[in-house]
Amino acid sequence: MGGYGDIQMIDENGLRVDGRNATQVRPITIETGVIPVADGSCRMTWGTNDVIVAVYGPMEAHPRKIQRQDRAVLDVRYNMAPFSTSDRIRPGFNRRSREISKVTADALESVVLLEMYPRSKIRVEIEVLCAEAGTRCVGLTAASVALADAGIPMTDMVVSVASGKVNDVVVCDLNKEEDNYGEADLPMGVLPNSGELVFLQMDGDLSPEEFQTAWDYNIQAAYDIHKIMVDALKTGGAN
Amino acid sequence: MKSRLVARPDNMSGNSSADGPQDSQIVVPGENLGKSGEYEAGHGVVITNDTLLATKNGKLIIKNNVLTIEPIHTTYFPRPSDLVIGYVEGCTNNIWFIDIGAPFNAILPMSLGPSKASFGSTRQVLDIGESILCRVQEVEETHSSVVTMKGMGLRKINTGSVDEIDPHLVSYLSGNGKDLLREMKENSDCRIIIADNGRVWVDGEVSGIINARNQFKDLTQNYRLIEDGGNI
Fold first, then answer.
1. Residue A151: half-sphere exposure toward Cβ, Cα within 13 Å
2. Which pLDDT band holds residue B38 (cuts at 50, 70, 90)?
3. Which of A38, B24, B45, B155 would suit a FRET pair with A82, their CA atoms being 20 to 30 Å apart?
């Protein structure tokens, strides 16, 4: 990140390479119930990102050593398909997918009422079919919708979105070029109804003012994305 | 992960509770359903900071001042006296393990089995893979359950076909959809038993079974349409 700072990615009118302004989010579609055999599922496209999430459970946790007597275990698996990027990805778990699986599980644990299902396991499978930028945000947001679709009780839905800095300008929802050649990236997970933060990572450097701007962009974007999620759950699909 | 307060914009989700909750409206997790003093929290509703919050995606039912959510999708959780259809998944010398579609297998002790079996001969009475119609006798706090086959009509299923529908459709078919079920029975000329765990036993001629299964498939696909007041 930040290796090609001289590349111009924002024009004099403040428009980005894909024609968006600084606060605009890429187009989003959400469809629920896309995998009939799963207890809950969701397909989310966010710009060129395409992610499918399937939720299974609650089911008996195996092996028994992972069972918790007072609550369920959330087993999240984030995976990028080998064909999801222009460079083939070696199939299977790697360091990055383990990290994203863990932070996604941690974010979701703060909203799912796990104590209602002692000794059980809820399995969340996040499969990235096409990756542009911000797949962890898409995966986390889609996982929230899939969990709601599965009827898993939750106190809120997590909405995740990332803002960052490109050519010294803070912009919302980075695309591939901005993610690769930008100077900073701030993905956040927000609970829109309670206004709480459940997930935050930062890559690169932001001044306190830039951080505050990115924060505000993320909160506003989360509000807009949450409306699309609600629409999808109420009608089965939304644009 | 410990969460902390970062922003609390009023009405951030766009779901205003100013008009109050409305009967039959579809709600999503986290939706504000109003102050806790006005209504009591039923299934799928929790009270946080004196506010009623929906925890499931489903239809809101207001009855006797209690807010309840009828989920659109749900997993079956056994309750005592539920009539269920189970599959024998395994056995020991004196216990059968029954898959009743819940997160945990139920146990069927030899003393509650279909007929008298001697110690060690459980597989001669009920073998692995066989289907049974049984009743939930007991459910523990940890969701382990015990089923019984002692009771009128409880038996091993030897004929017909067992199909699955979403558990929430069971309450619909035993309530508002009762006429629909009677119509299905008449059209298919089959005996249909709907168990509380969403499994359906259809017994009769092969053509009738196919007919009934197609009708259940249509019902599952069009449930959202029915919720909106339409007919299938």
1. 21
2. confident
3. A38
- CATH of residue A144's domain is 3.30.230.70
Q: How many domains does chain A fold into?
A: 1
Asked if residue A158 lies in contact with residue A95, where contact means CB atoms within 8 angstroms, the answer is no
Q: Which of B105, B103, B175, B162 is nearest to B133 (CA)?
A: B162
In a domain, A176, yes or no: yes
Residue-level pLDDT at A11? 86
Q: How far apart are CA B57 and CA B29, in angstroms?
A: 6
Query: Chain centroid to CA A195: how far?
Result: 17
The mean pLDDT of B194-222, rounded to a whole number, is: 88
Encode B175-200 in three state secondary structure.
CCCHHHHHHHHHHHCCEEEECCCCEE
Within a domain: A128:
yes
Confidence at residue B3, expressed as pLDDT on a 0 to 100 scale: 42
What percent of chain A clears pLDDT 70, i.e. is strictly above it? Answer: 96
Mean pLDDT of chain A: 92
Evaluate whether residue A55 is within a structural domain: yes
Within a domain: residue A14?
no
Domain limits at A197?
Answer: 28-238
A37-46 mean pLDDT? 94
Higher pLDDT, A105 or B77: A105
Contact A149 B142 (CB under 8 A): no
> Domains of chain B, with CATH numbers?
26-71 (2.40.50.100), 83-157 (2.40.50.140), 161-227 (3.30.1370.10)
Supply the angle between the helices A95-109 and A135-149 in degrees, to the nearest 10.
40
ipTM score over 0.85, yes or no = yes
In chain A, the residue whose alpha carbon lies closest to the alpha carbon of B46 is A155
pLDDT tens digits, A197-210: 999 999 999 999 99
Which residues of B touch chain A, with CB atoms under 8 Å apart? 1-9, 12-15, 26, 28-32, 44, 46, 48, 53, 55-58, 71-75, 103-105, 141-143, 224
Q: How far is CA A201 from CA A6, A8, A99, A189, B220, in A?
A: 25, 26, 11, 9, 42
Helix-strand-coil split of chain A, %, nearest 5: 30, 30, 40
How far is the CA of B113 from the CAs of B23, B120, B132, B154, B203, in angstroms? 44, 13, 10, 10, 23
Chain A stretch 112-151, residues whose beta carbon is closer than 8 A to a beta carbon of chain B: 113, 117-120, 148-151
